[in-house]
Amino acid sequence: ERDWFYGVLGQLAGLLAKNGVTVLIAATANRRHYRDQARQQIARFAEIYVRCDLATCQQRDPKGIYGQAQEGTAVSVPGVGSPYEPPLQPEVVVDTTVLTVAEAATAVYQQLASFFQPVKV
User: Which of 6, 49, 63, 111 could hold 34 in an S-S bridge, CB 3.0 to 4.6 Å?
Assistant: First the structure.
């Protein structure tokens, strides 16, 4: 199911990007090959790695998904029931265990602004 979902997500983002739309995908994409496939389909691709250790993810979990994973009722939670493969060379990295939400957002914005130059259409 995840293979299909991330494949469709990458294709859709690629089509939008080819038509001049700026696309931001907020998805876990727990396996590197999902992100690598998207990178191949999108010319101006930047991977943003929002680093957060498992304990911090569990503390911030408003829906209790990590608790369900530990009880065995949720089996495909990245980092618990299914592996999470961190990116090898992301264009942007923010560590949310040390940065506030505002600091992380500012860091992402600044790094993306320097990475992407405006495109004349």
Answer: 6
